[in-house]
Design a protein that fits this description.
Radius of gyration: 22 Å
Shape: globular
CATH superfamily of the largest domain: Lipoprotein localisation LolA/LolB/LppX
Distance between the termini: 28 Å
Strand order of the largest sheet: 1-8-9-10-11-12-2-3-4-5-6-7-13
Oligomer: single chain
Strand content: 25-35%
Structural class: alpha+beta
Largest sheet: 13 strands, mixed
Number of helices: 10
């Protein structure tokens, strides 16, 4: 997450108080009720706003952050609508072709959450969610005449794709402090948020709104820095429980939100225990976590090893919203021709980006409405929520 700071009108004493409060609040910005494998994908579990603004008592940014910090909602159920517009290019039939080839060769399961939940990265989707504490969550992705469900119940994680009648079974990590799926838990968020707290952000209260039938305050987070692709983040906070109910990220370039996630329905009652039960449907194909790993072909072990070494040496340039992560892949930049694995895949990849030159040499910038990445011809990567010129400047400075 980006850092949190007061608005410019806050005096020194209030700033110190807010800085302490935001440390406590940061770990609750993602509701504790949606954890497990799907939590990182859903992120902040917000809601769509109803019409009209409630008349609530005045509250300061510090008080609102304190309210979020004290929130301890453990049980909920409801419907969530997610709209994502990263401005990604339309890959046409390429993605379908690749996925089809993987399925035919037995490389994976359509019920594997690793691939299935990436669908949330683009378009509009409807989810049903339920949670009962840190060990029981269920997320169902509703599709046309089909449904994909991901269930976390104790040590078990189940994925089920009704369209293909396939099941994926995995287990929750023993050391949850190190697992990817716990990065959206209170501790995981606290660890990450505290690393980036500085004075590059303005945090204010921006009125009130109705969210899924509940009264909420609006917390407005805006970068003080120029050069970032982030315009503002608006979070609706439930006035009674302090639970974040709505998350909307708008880009600095304007236009529709990059991410708009929200409850259309919400209940804070305890879900029925049967909600988290799973029984393998008759005739379903079952893939386990271990078998899926063994079945995956190792077509590029050397390149993966080089990339892994590069990520181990990842460094961060700049601070706050202008932070740029950089690492060396240990190889060339965007591949071309047959070096890309056959055909003209390299040329296709190159056409998706903008060619740039500078003191660093030359490379390709791949852009979305939020995150941009520069891949130099000698294999160095610069990526961040910053504009293209910021990436080029960082590459030049590192030369």
């Amino acid at each position: 997450m980006a850092p949190y700071e007061t608005d410019d009108s806050t005096d020194t004493g209030e700033a110190d108080e807010l800085r302490s409060g935001r440390r406590r609040a940061a770990r609750y910005i993602v509701p504790v009720t949606v954890v497990g494998v799907a939590a990182a994908t859903i992120g902040l579990v917000p809601a769509l706003a109803d019409s009209g603004d409630p008349n609530l008592p005045k509250i300061t940014a510090q008080q609102l952050l304190d309210k979020v910090a004290k929130s301890d909602v453990q049980q909920l159920s409801g419907t969530v609508k997610i709209s994502t517009d990263l401005g990604l290019p339309d890959l046409g039939g390429l993605e379908s072709s690749v996925m089809s080839g993987a399925t035919k060769s037995g490389d994976g399961s359509s019920a594997d959450p690793t691939g299935k939940l990436t669908e949330l990265a683009t378009g509009t989707h409807t989810l049903r969610v339920a949670a009962d504490g840190p060990d029981k969550q269920k997320v169902s992705l509703l599709e046309n005449a089909a449904e994909y469900s991901l269930i976390h119940n104790g040590k078990d994680i189940w994925g089920y794709d009704s369209q293909s009648n396939e099941v994926f079974h995995g287990t929750a990590a023993d050391d949850t402090s190190k697992s990817d799926e716990t990065r959206a838990t209170p501790k995981g968020l606290t660890d990450e948020a505290l690393k980036s707290i500085d004075d590059t952000t303005s945090v204010t209260v921006d009125g009130t709104e109705h969210v899924a039938g509940r009264d909420a305050y609006k917390l407005l987070i805006k970068p003080k820095q120029s050069g970032t692709t982030v315009g503002a983040i608006s979070i609706a906070v439930d006035s009674k429980t302090g639970l974040p109910l709505k998350f909307t990220l708008t880009p600095a370039s304007g236009g529709a939100a990059v991410v708009d996630v929200g409850f259309t329905q919400l209940s804070l009652s305890k879900p029925a225990a049967s909600t988290f039960d799973f029984k393998t449907p008759k005739g379903a194909k079952v893939t386990t976590e271990d078998s899926a790993t063994k079945a995956a072909p190792d077509h590029s072990a050397k390149s993966d090893e080089d990339l892994g070494k590069g990520l181990d040496d990842l460094t961060v340039l700049g601070k706050g919203w202008n932070s740029i992560a950089t690492f060396d892949t240990g190889g060339q930049g965007v591949p071309s021709g047959s070096s890309a694995g056959g055909g003209d895949l390299g040329g296709f990849l190159g056409s998706l980006g903008d060619q740039v030159k500078g003191d660093f040499g030359s490379g390709t910038v791949f852009s979305t409405r939020l995150v941009n990445a520069l891949v130099t011809d000698d294999g160095k990567v610069y990526v961040g929520a910053v504009n293209k010129s910021a990436l080029v400047k960082a590459a030049n400075a590192a030369k």
